[in-house]
Amino acid sequence: MQANVELKIVQDQIPRLFRRYAIPGIVAMLFMAIQTIVDGLIVGRLISANALAAVNIISPIYTLVTAIALTLGVGCQAQIGLNLGRKDYSCAKSSLANGLVGLICFTVVSTICVNIFAEDIACFLGANEILLSDAIGYIHGVMPWLMGVGGLFFCDYTLKGLGHPKFSTGLMTGTFILNIALSLLFVVLFDWGTLGAGMGTGISFTVGTIVYIVIIWRILKKMPLVRNAKVRWSWRTFGHIAYNGSSEGLTEVAVGISTFVFNVTLMAYSGEKGVAAYTVIQYVNFICISILLGVSNGVIPILSYNEGAGNMQRVSAVSHIAILTNLAVGFIFIVILIFGANSIMEIFIDKSEQPVLDIAASGAKLMALSFLFNGFNIFAASYFTAIDRPLQSIIIAGLRSFAILIAGVTLLPFWFGLDGIWISTPVAELITVIIALFLLKNRMKLNGIK
In a 3-state reduction of DSSP, which class is residue 228? Predict the structure, then answer.
């Protein structure tokens, strides 16, 4: 079984290999987006627009946990692929063990702290008297289950790194379907409001994590070279895993921070209506971003293994297909949002709340321009993570989702008002794509690849 998986990565035709890893990645990320959107529909339609804004206010905490899980998960996935390509099975197994221990320690401490200081955290993140109750309810719903939330994403990347992308997609999809069912049960039948929406996510993700762990354990038993390898705990190994996956984690942290800055700025320019509109726009944008991430992160095992095995031309071929795919997806979503923004926004917000609809439709059209560039940026960050070049990956992730974006949200509204908030995203992506292209071309040149 182990030899068969490794043989396919180094010998299969590139288009077939790309489909085998990228399509499951896209499907899993799309289901994640759909689950997030359905949660938004449940909260926005069945509770209230203010409840939707309250959940968005709290999202930076949730994002921080997923950021750590992604950092360790992607870092482990890349190290597993690189070390399997080098036939270093002890390092591959040690990477998995080190990452898992680190994740458990972080989630235990976070669970205790967040639930004790729920009200203080909600107020700090910008919840006013109108949003505070719903914000605290969501914290108490999802935060007791942080180990399950973080574990799901970590195990997903681990299972893909072991060469089972389709299996991983099936498990992730089942988890999201369970999440939707439990959220409907707790919100509609039990009438638990944002507490129920949070519990639906927490419980379903915890169940999914348990199933993942059982499956990974059984797969490792069928991989004798990995199973029999010695595990070495090392702070150096753990630090390198965290460093190598840090761009993905930084992206998630930056999303949380930028969401906080967006919310504070929007509260100043348009109040709760602006925050609710931004929340809906983010749901729509998340669909496209999910596809781009599905492609980019899906091919990490291919890139890592072939980089470790020295197959540079295969690395180049996979990169070209991934970049072209992301560019095509971005163009399609630009067209959809420019011509259909009004209709799409009405799916989430009732027509009776016309001011929110108007703000959301206008903002969606402007933010859609970012899809011209972010597909390339997302792939470039994943590429550098896959080949164990975390610094370049951090630069790209930090620029597009943090440094330039925060500067834009802070400064552009002074000249363009509310529109300045929306155009800060495409401006950040445009500046980043120039730098990312330079870094990627230099790396390819060093590898002797055109």
Answer: coil
- Report the 10 Å Cβ neighbour count for 140: 15
Between CA 1 and CA 163 the distance in angstroms is: 10
Half-sphere exposure (CA, 13 Å, Cβ side) for 200? 29
pLDDT tens for the chain, 450 residues: list them: 444 454 456 566 777 878 777 787 787 777 777 777 777 778 777 787 777 777 777 777 777 777 777 777 777 777 777 777 677 777 777 777 787 888 888 888 888 888 888 888 888 877 777 778 888 888 888 888 888 888 888 888 788 777 777 778 788 888 888 988 898 899 888 888 888 888 988 899 999 999 998 988 888 777 777 767 777 767 777 777 777 776 666 666 666 677 777 777 877 777 777 777 777 787 777 788 888 888 887 788 788 877 777 778 888 888 888 999 999 998 988 888 888 777 777 776 666 667 777 777 888 888 888 888 888 988 988 888 888 787 888 888 878 777 788 888 888 888 888 778 888 888 888 998 999 988 888 877 776 665
Task: Say which residues have a Cβ less than 8 Å from residue 374's Cβ, sequence separation at least 6.
Answer: 289, 292, 330, 400, 429
Decide if 7 is inside a domain.
no
pTM of the model: 0.72
| Domain membership flag for residue 91 | yes
- Which residue is it, tokens 């007791």? 144
Range of the domain at 391: 12-446
In the chain, the amino acid numbered 121 is I
Indicate whether 427 belongs to any domain. Answer: yes
Alpha-helix runs per DSSP H in 117-229: 118-124, 132-142, 146-161, 165-184, 193-221, 224-227
Block residue for tokens 């681990």: 158
Q: Up-side HSE of residue 96: CA atoms within 13 Å toward CB?
A: 26
Is 270 part of a structural domain of the chain? yes
- The total number of structural domains that make up the chain: 1
